[in-house]
Design brief:
Strand content: 25-35%
CATH topology: SH3 type barrels
InterPro entries: SspB, SspB-like_sf
CATH superfamily: SspB-like
Shape: globular
Number of helices: 2
CATH class: Mainly Beta
Number of domains: 1
CATH architecture: Roll
Number of strands: 7
Organism: Neptunomonas concharum
Strand order of the largest sheet: 2-1-6-7
GO molecular function: peptidase activity
Order of helices and strands: HEEEEEEEH
Low-confidence stretches: none
Protein name: ClpXP protease specificity-enhancing factor
Keywords: Hydrolase, Protease
Largest sheet: 4 strands, antiparallel
Structural class: alpha+beta
Mean pLDDT: 87
Radius of gyration: 20 Å
């Protein structure tokens, strides 16, 4: 089954906007592939305003959230892989959702924690076949 995180983020972002709230993403900026302005990262995290008035070209697909925004007047392309999104919530009330326990979350945990497999070491012996019934 596909992870639910992208679907939840799209739905919650729309719900927050429909309720005149300002949607924000809490992001783990230490994960591989995160492209955010480093000068605004605090304790390895960054909060991003994803309201339509703050950003342009928002794309929330199965892999990541991406958009264009200005930080301190400097334009930047932002890219946040789904595994790095910690929460989406309203600035005004805190209503929203934290991630890590939703259906499919284990997919992101595996992709972040996986080490590349080591190639098998030659045994030095003669190859053998084993009959499995």
């Amino acid at each position: 089954m596909n992870p639910s995180r992208p679907y939840l983020i799209r739905a919650l972002q729309e719900w927050l906007i429909d309720n005149d709230s300002t949607p924000h993403l809490a992001v783990d900026a230490t994960l591989k592939g995160v492209m955010v302005p480093e000068q605004f990262v605090t304790d390895g995290q960054i909060i991003l305003n994803i309201s339509p008035s703050a950003i342009q070209n928002l794309v929330i697909d199965d892999e990541a959230v991406s958009f264009n925004a200005r930080f301190g007047g400097v334009p930047m392309n932002v890219y946040v892989p789904m595994a790095a999104i910690l929460a989406i919530y309203a600035r005004e009330s805190g209503a929203g959702m934290g991630f890590g326990m939703e259906p499919g979350a284990e997919f992101y945990e595996q992709s972040v924690n996986e080490e590349p497999p080591e190639p098998p070491k030659p045994s030095g012996g003669r190859p053998a076949l084993k009959v499995v019934k």
